User: What shape does this take?
Amino acid sequence: MKRKKISVENLVMDTSIAVILLILVLITLYPVWYVVVASFTDSTELARNPGLLLWPEEFDAGAYRMVFKNPLLMGAFKNTFIILVTALPINIVLTLLCGYFMACPGMYWKKIITAIIMFTMFFNGGLIPGYLNIRDLGLYNSLWALILPGALSVYNAIICKTAIEAVPDSLRESAYIDGANDIQIIFKIILPLIKPTMAVLLLYYGVAHWNSWFNASLYIKDSLKLPVQNIMRSILLANDTLGGQGGDDYNAYAETIKYAAIVITTTPIMCIYPFLQKYFAKGVMIGAVKG
Amino acid sequence: MKKILRNEIIIRDFHRHKYKYILISPVLIYLALFCYKPIYGIIIAFQKYRPSLGIAKSKWVGLDNFIRFFDDPYFGQILRNTFSISLLMLLFSMPAAILLALLLNEVKCSIFKRFVQTITYMPHFIATVVICGLITTYCQSNGLFNDIVIWFGGERSNLLANPDHFYTIYVASGIWQNVGWSSIIYLAALSGIDQEQYEAAKVDGAGRIRQIWYITLPGIMPIISMQLILNLGKVLSVGYEKILLLYQPLTYEVADVISTYVYRKGMIDADYSFSTAVNLFNSIINIIFLLTANRLSKKMGQSGLF
Assistant: This one.
């Protein structure tokens, strides 16, 4: 009798949980689906009826052609690409060095240096002193202004440090005895063992660069040097149709081009993060404990 | 004698860890140039700073900029807005994340569980610019949200221009974007609960809901209280990115927070000293809150930050 009651309860629970989660999935996906559908819809059709969309009424991929033909957007893609290939190696190397130092025991200055590093997590100069600093250093209106100020995230370095600490000490020590120096230990022994963590950190840094717009709006004056999100901002939020750079042909797609641009700028990240999903938990756990 | 010994320790330490010190130096140079140099630049908060004169020659005015800020009728308003936004965020987003984690934890089919996780993590990776662009489009008077309003018998209007709706839009979109991501930490905590307790509860005849109430929730209570304290410590640090993209002069009265005020005063009005003073005030309050939160967290027997 009791068993039966429990199994009925189980069935009801499992079904309602599945239904709630499915509704949540739909709510999460619908705005994204809307963007995809809108990007393939005929522009005049969309302008007339931008509300609920389920399926493109008249399929039209013209907006994508327009995006790829637009010199400002393509230039922005190039800028973002330059930022990524320059910044990511710097990010990863600095994070590794910082994490390694904080994970190693026994240095006389370790406490002080670690304190100097950690302090920057809780206190910074703020907007204006940071801005004036970039001007002082002569980085204003240069892509370096978007690469160097965020070259190291101490938060990520702590995640890296925790991963390095999980590598058995004996491995490091035996390498020492065999005459390896710290550089060799980092790149030949530690790096191969903490690859999953570094992949996640690479994703975090990459997403941060890819999605950032604020610093460029402060530091970049020349619109040809702006990264992708700043152009997205003017398309999406200022309703700037990119100065009619494509002529009449372009204006016909003014509405749908927004959505095509969103699809193109968002797809790369959407294709990468699911593969690293199982490693997220570790990083978040560490982050929560260490702030 | 002692001094000589100390010197010897330092020299020997340097010889032994030579490479470690060399390897950390790029990090220290980076921090000096891009973190500590701006911290030194905070001095302008106590000056009447003029870019042409620089920090060295600008006039020292002491606490004038701070006094100006406290006397500003805007002071109370942006403080209130900042508190309101972060407390509302906290009030709704934490329970949502905990609830999602609890629901996911009850799912037995691992493929379905992973699927829901992948989908709900997705918005976290979408750019703020794109999210705000979509919010703006959906809020337009002929947009998606207005279609929903019509269903419920309302009238069409630009929702973003109405101060009454700003918090709802801000908090709801925040939850939409981050509920999955914030649930990760609770899920991780859930996987650490001793499975034997559930077995024992089953033998005693406890149903699923009772198990959640008496085993699961107490099991993640430490993490919940720690997160709560940490978030309370961040209560005055509402970021500017999303608000800058969503607010407009019509909604300043509810949407303007300390960080956006710092931005407008500094970058638009070029009132560098005043903006830096407001920012410094905010940073100091944040640190005090964080230290207090950390103290509390330790007192309650949780591991603190430091």
